[in-house]
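Request: Have a read of the protein record below and say how the chain folds.
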Amino acid sequence: MKPRIETLAEKKLIGKRMAMSFSDDKTVELWKSFMPGRKEILHSTGTELYGMQVYEQSYFSDFNPSREFEKWAAIAVADFDIVPDGMEPFILTGGQYAVFIHKGASTDNSTFRYIFTSWLPHSDYLLDDRPHLEVLGEKYKNGDPNSEEEVWIPIKPKP
């Protein structure tokens, strides 16, 4: 599973966020609270949905599955002129990402295990301190074993 390396431009996102941990995963709850109101978000720049994780800088070097991080359910927008009640704006800084295709149910962690235990340690890159993304496009089918999504891992070249 070889990723493509992409440079992402800054993006404006509007969505909902929730604190959670790997041991207390509230992803389903987050998306259930976001989806009914997503049609109120104006000026979207595409049909993709974004799952985004914001980790503290030391999160992976001092990994603890009970340690909280911030997870977002969002869509990309052209501007923040109107932010619906209960939603928040987020500016995603641009940068370099390794993009992997995950096939299968979102509960299957094999892609992430491969990225962090096989690919990243043997690559020419280090994990960068920026949000991690899942881009849910046309091929994403919630819960379906034939589902596909893109996993965007923030990277920077090794010194």
User: Anything to note?
Assistant: The domain at 4-157 is CATH 3.20.80.10 (Multidrug-efflux Transporter 1 Regulator Bmrr; Chain A).
